[in-house]
């Protein structure tokens, strides 16, 4: 019985690629240095899978930024503003598209389906000259082959690539991106020919858009694309991989009828209904790559249950045509549990990171072949039983409090217009008030202080003194810049979700459980293993310290319940909504304590609310109902004069704007600049928004410093569709990933632009 891995984490067990990328971007190391680190990581990954007995090992899943940008480079679809003149695309052009440069902004970045991973959105139009401009796929295949590992090269499928793209600036928004399919396929044929010539026997096309609710003409594009590619693919085994949800019945029919396809991969963890489709009819003689090991969470697989599922599938597809696989790429999990030295043994026994999931996949494949490792299965069963019966998982008081929430919709008693009037009387803010989203640059010195405190190398007194000094510096800077509503800069926090999770019960933490979010940005998701509660206040001390340094309003900074959920590894033994309600109650306690401490502006970030939206439309209303309700629970008890902010970033919000309004926040700050201000189109189309709103005026994920005139132009575009008395001026997101040499001039220009427009409005 064969085994397969859809994809693997790229950063390395100790974030080796992250540090190599940042060193290269800072000019401290060469391209050759970066390539050497990358090659060593790839070799390690391939050998690890080969040694574990995996038959179908992926290549070309490694990326310096993201796999969609890699596809853009392969196709030579570089926007004109980057000045690329042809030839093999190098790091300068590649990273300019991802990050921008001193003269031009980056391309739009958005979430990869319903994950916290991001991709760079291709910008296409009728005049794009697609040319084979990156030979990465074949180069990496040859690289693995030279190491004695025969791999399955992985490509983003041509239809998914186009469906994830957007019309370039200046191209009609109604432009049919699928009309570019023939041009794109011409390049794919060249890539396929190269891979065949190099000796590849399998090729994997990732077509995850097949799990979406696609119209018939989009499904037809898959039929057309693979019919066109069939002659080029002749002689190759072709796997079409889907993941993240059930495949709808019509898409399943389309997929399993595709010309020249040998195998189909399905997510059978998040797509359990797909099992019924497979059992109802699977094409004879084709391979089923059964994704039974979860690629998106860190819980150990229930091997006995998975084996039962696989044995049932054997009778449908045939023993020799069933391949055990992961449900998706392991990119979304941490790398290796071996590196976790501080997790207690009980919780550790419940977990499996990417390296352990490879072993699980192979163990299941061997068991199907009659070579079951009884000791491994027995240990797994014991761990499953331990998790179900552990007293640390359940807190009856928390469960009762969460259950009691369901009788109310938890709305503040006064409408938002009256609340804004009461808040303005208290805060006395100017028109177009300026603020930032929360974090300020995380300097080397600041990271050192936190690291030494955690390692007990400095005392708590020394730590508190250092953090107070940093807060004072950030407050002084904002006052010098004349920002209206201040933040404390979050110097005590490495990661906003991890920070809160560390202070809530029911959470566990890793030392090296890093997961890539985009580029070199890594996060370390907490593990929610049990019922959640707040033993004591979490932010009140630092917010009070910050407020003591200024007479201007100081925002209390919290992470919302849905974002904590979506940016954690969440327990899978109860509905996600139940866990979210528990977190909401904990945040509610914190909000009310901040208010008692005199904090009059409290921001409850829900950056990931849109991210968690189910991919299938039939499931979206239920999610939005409990997600929005959870947010309202957090602040239902505050006074009218306490201003509640929230923040959202890097997703498509237009389709959930009514749910955002239903959150009933007083002010929302929301990413806008990097996505070509498409958020504003909602308001142009007539949606009325009565609360305060701050669409971001510049992109913080790029080192580029926007000039005052550019920001002023953005503000004017906003004023064309939004009332001046509700508009706020702020960056797209927090500033922790930037340097002070970038932040100071950018914020200076932002404040100058706000003042410029205020003066114009006054005239």
TrEMBL record:
Any Pfam family matching the protein: Meth_synt_2
Q: Where is the Cobalamin-independent methionine synthase MetE N-terminal domain?
A: 3-315
The terms under GO molecular function for this entry are: 5-methyltetrahydropteroyltriglutamate-homocysteine S-methyltransferase activity; methionine synthase activity; zinc ion binding
Instruction: Enumerate the InterPro entries for this protein.
Output: Cbl-indep_Met_Synth_N, Cobalamin-indep_Met_synthase, Met_Synth_C/arc, UROD/MetE-like_sf
Task: Give, as in the UniProt entry, the pathway in which the protein acts.
Answer: Amino-acid biosynthesis; L-methionine biosynthesis via de novo pathway; L-methionine from L-homocysteine (MetE route): step 1/1
Instruction: Tell me which residues this entry annotates as catalytic.
Output: 701
* Membrane-spanning intervals of the chain: none
Q: Which residues bind L-methionine?
A: 437-439, 490, 605
Cofactor needs: Zn(2+)
Q: Which class of enzymes does this protein belong to?
A: transferase
Q: Which CDD domains match?
A: CIMS_C_terminal_like (cd03311), CIMS_N_terminal_like (cd03312)
Keyword annotations for this protein?
A: Amino-acid biosynthesis, Metal-binding, Methionine biosynthesis, Methyltransferase, Transferase, Zinc
How cofactor binds (record note)? Binds 2 Zn(2+) ions per subunit.
UniProt catalytic activity: 5-methyltetrahydropteroyltri-L-glutamate + L-homocysteine = tetrahydropteroyltri-L-glutamate + L-methionine
Q: What residues bind Zn(2+) 1, as annotated? A: 647, 649, 671, 733
List of residues binding Zn(2+) 2:
658
E.C. designation(s):
2.1.1.14
Entry's family note:
Belongs to the vitamin-B12 independent methionine synthase family.
> Its biological function?
Catalyzes the transfer of a methyl group from 5-methyltetrahydrofolate to homocysteine resulting in methionine formation.
Q: What protein name does the entry list?
A: 5-methyltetrahydropteroyltriglutamate--homocysteine S-methyltransferase
Source organism of the structure: Vigna mungo (Black gram)
